[in-house]
Amino acid sequence: MTALTADQIARVKATVPVLAVHGTTITKRFYKRMFAHHPELKNVFNQTHQKSGNQPETLAKAVYAYAANIDNLGALGPTVSRIAHKHVSLNIRPEQYPIVGRHLLGAIVDVLGDAVDQETLGAWEVAYGQLADIFIGTEAKLYKGAAWSGFRPFKVARKEVESDEITSFYLSPADGSPACGFEPGQYLSVKRFVDELGVDQPRHYSLSDAPNGKWLRISVKREAGREDTAPGHVSNLLHDGVEVGAVVHVSAPSGDFTLDRKTTTPVVLMSGGVGVTPMTSMLSTLLADQSERSVTFVHACRNGRVHAFRQWLNDTVAAHPNVTRAVFYEAIEACDRAGIDYDFEGRLDLTKIADKVIVPDADYYICGPVPFMRAQCEALASLGVDSARIHTEVFGSGVVE
């Protein structure tokens, strides 16, 4: 790894204000350049997020954060870990980093032109090389510990509707071998060919059950699309075109949003919508471990029609005195039963259940849409919870700020 000089560090940091203004323009240009020269990489990147602008915006924030912390890279540790896990799940390899670097630097020149001098561009070249080395080293360790490398064929052993929006797929290794273990909270990537796009598209889906050696269960929300968003290519292909016996290709379990199974502290699991999936894995694993830890399962969704794992949660609470629940429905329907299907009307409001969730030494695990997670993090902080005890997962390309 080539070390940055003091002058190079100063030059990179001096570009921070420019990145704040032009960062997304640069990253949009970067993706356009890279895909033009290497169209095969469209098989790796989420093309829906490309079209919506989510991925360029997220990359711009990451580049900005790297430049701002170029003299304190330790601050980027959690971000590097999360991205490295996603890279391994997508089978990103060391030989792809020079491609990214070449087109990122090219995009900077394309957008900024004469505003960036050769010395600054040279500083960024060294800085990118440093960052690439960090990721390559981190990912090498993850690959070494992974259950397998790349994408592997699995058969759909079972398909089960969990709600109007969410369906579970039970995936067993196509070669008949036992299913691998994993840490509750992790995800795997499923790759499907999308005719409309003409490329393979990978998507991350959280594992939604405890490890059992028989199958890996994912529970997929059908992304129907709205006025401002397109329907989800892969989720709709899975719901409509993948039946029992079909073969899908998946990556090994990955992700650092995982339940700490070594401690005995109370656990508060908080989810919004399909964010319930890693929480079912965490709670199922605690039950399989015969843990006596106090668990509070907090979930928010629109109504009973979209409430996945409702009966499972009710049965679990009834059978285990150490598990309690608090369910919020935002738009109650006539068939929704208070005290059975849900406990509170409206959006999740922690002040209504502070006596349940504000517990000494508790660890908080949160998953759901980014605005939901941001609101819960802020609410927990206002109620005096130490940020070190708050753990979040992010689907897609979003970030929790």
Automatic annotation (TrEMBL):
Gene Ontology molecular function, alphabetical: FAD binding; heme binding; metal ion binding; nitric oxide dioxygenase NAD(P)H activity; oxygen binding; oxygen carrier activity
Ranges for domain Globin: 3-140
Region Reductase: start-end pairs: 148-401
EC number from the UniProt entry: 1.14.12.17
Residues of the site described as Influences the redox potential of the prosthetic heme and FAD groups: K86, E393
Catalytic activity: 2 nitric oxide + NADPH + 2 O2 = 2 nitrate + NADP(+) + H(+); 2 nitric oxide + NADH + 2 O2 = 2 nitrate + NAD(+) + H(+)
Co-factor remark: Binds 1 FAD per subunit. Binds 1 heme b (iron(II)-protoporphyrin IX) group per subunit.
Cofactor: FAD; heme b
Catalytic residues of the enzyme: Y97 (charge relay system), E139 (charge relay system)
Annotated positions binding FAD: Y187, V394, F395, G396, S397
Family as reported in the entry's similarity comment: In the C-terminal section; belongs to the flavoprotein pyridine nucleotide cytochrome reductase family.
Domain characteristics, as noted in the entry: Consists of two distinct domains; an N-terminal heme-containing oxygen-binding domain and a C-terminal reductase domain with binding sites for FAD and NAD(P)H.
Job description of the protein: Is involved in NO detoxification in an aerobic process, termed nitric oxide dioxygenase (NOD) reaction that utilizes O(2) and NAD(P)H to convert NO to nitrate, which protects the bacterium from various noxious nitrogen compounds. Therefore, plays a central role in the inducible response to nitrosative stress.
Name of the molecule in the record: Flavohemoprotein
Gene source species: Paraburkholderia madseniana
Gene name of the record: hmpA
